Every structure is written in structure tokens, then in C-alpha cells.
């Protein structure tokens, strides 16, 4: 039986370098607000507004460092509020996804794709994966404890020697299960 720490991932955005330049000014460097569970990743001080056909969210946190593609990760509830039909996808899999308008202090950009509801997933260091006998892209379940205990099915394992052990769920999933950041679940291979 292996315990997995659970992180609750609120709506956030990853920006491509060219979009950082448009939104914040040429050559702008994101400032670190706080480090995240994954090595080298951080919540930036900076935020942007995202505007959909039906609604808008101000102060959406940027996660750094810059990525190859701009990607907005939201919950299903957020998707309804924005008026977009965001599919459940692994981070980086943005083909065929809706776009969004992003507004920063120096400019704005409309991306044609990149809005997703992130698939629940576990980041595992290669050592953790070996110890738990799971492979990259393997689908597992994770059982939680507490008053609103649930078993999350269809959890994707993401294995790399660059990762630290942490499961990520969105705010809708966390609220339904009564989970807060740092609580633990049990891996069911």
C-alpha cells in the first residue's frame, strides 16, 4: 500500500514566451511567488485575465517557467462560467481544444487552442515508480480517506526523473471529495 500526497490545482495558465512578451512587454521575466511541488516549477507573482464567450476570470495565476505552448487549465465549473467546452486532457495535449482571450497589463492575445480540464494524474519520480511498480502513462486508481472518501479512477501516471511524487486534481474534484492540499490517498494499481 503506497500513500500519495494530493495537490489541489486551481485554475491557472502556462504561457509561451511570445505571449509573455505580448502580455507583459518584450523580454519580460516572470517573478517567482512560490515554488510548486514539481522541481523548477513555480507560481508566478503575475496574473492575467481570461475572457471566454460567456464569462471572464481576472487574476488567473501564471505558472512558470514559460512553456512551448500557452495552455489554460480550468475545472469543469470554470468551463461553464467561461462558456467554453474544454475537454479533459493531459497537460500538453491541446490539439482540438478551444481557445481563449488573454489580457495582460501591456497587451492581449487570443489563442486558437489550449483550454483544457486537466486529467487527474500522478507525477512520479522514476525511483517512486519503480518502488510502486507502475509505468509512465499507466492508469491507476487512488482511494482517499475521510468523511467524503472517494476512489479516483482513471488517474494517469506520469513518470520522469525530473518529477516529485504528487497527485494533481482540480478544485471540482477536491471539493466533491472534501480534500485539501497535502492530504494523502492510497495507490490502487
Automatic annotation (TrEMBL):
Transmembrane segments: none
Enzyme Commission code(s) on record: 2.3.1.222
A GO BP annotation: 1,2-propanediol catabolic process
InterPro entries according to UniProt: PTAC
Pathway: Polyol metabolism; 1,2-propanediol degradation
GO terms assigned for molecular function: acyltransferase activity, transferring groups other than amino-acyl groups; metal ion binding
Cofactor: Zn(2+)
Catalytic activity entry: propanoyl-CoA + phosphate = propanoyl phosphate + CoA
Keywords, in A-Z order: Acyltransferase, Metal-binding, Transferase, Zinc
EC supergroup of this enzyme: transferase
Function, in words: Involved in 1,2-propanediol (1,2-PD) degradation by catalyzing the conversion of propanoyl-CoA to propanoyl-phosphate.
Protein family (similarity comment): Belongs to the PduL family.
Full protein name: Phosphate propanoyltransferase
